Amino acid sequence: MPDLPVLREQILKFIAACRQPVLKEEDAEPLAIATDRFELSVQTDSLLFDAWDERRTVSRRIVALRSADARGMVLVVRKFGGRESVLTLSETELRGVTAVL
To answer: pTM value?
Structure first.
């Protein structure tokens, strides 16, 4: 079990260091992360990550950090229904993704 408050701080620091952070999941359109449009809260056994824009909301339980470097973070998440997947946080400019806020 990861130290959830420490993991939360790692994620917040990464997002703060990005010019335009973006969230990406398999088979889904990237979602730009704005400072006033995401929440990251410590739960009993996971971090609850919510991000939204005008069109959609992504809500995932982060259960572990798979990898991290200056360009991105790969997080293991549990989707509703219990299925595990990965969520990637990255800098938009480094990935060549155009995100609209």
So the answer is: 0.84
